[in-house]
Amino acid sequence: MGEALGLQEIFFSTMAGATIVLMGALYSLFFALGRLRTSRSLDIAALLAYALLAVAVYVLINALALKGFWIVVTAVMLIGYFFLPRAIWQLCEGTHAADSATSDSRASQ
User: Is residue 82 within 8 Å of residue 23, measured between CB atoms?
Assistant: First the structure.
C-alpha cells in the first residue's frame, strides 16, 4: 500500500465507500422493518443489501490493494454491520418491554 493511487483506484474506492454506507443503512432499515412487520420479503431484502455491502467491501479491498491489518479491519467492519442492527433491535425490544411492564403496573394501580 506504499504506492500512489491512480484516478481509477480513487474512483472505485470512493464509490465502494459510498456503497458500503448506503447498503449498511438499507440493511438496517430492511432488517428493522422486517422485524416490525414480520415480513419475509423484507428479511430477504435486508440480506440482499448486506450481500451488496460485502461486494462493495471486496471492491474497496481490491481498489486500495489492502493487505494484512487492513483486511482484518474490513472483516471486523463486515461482522459489525451484520450483528449490530440485530443487537440494537434486541436492546430496543428489551427497553420497550420494560417500559411497557412499568406502564401496565401503573395503570392497574
Answer: no
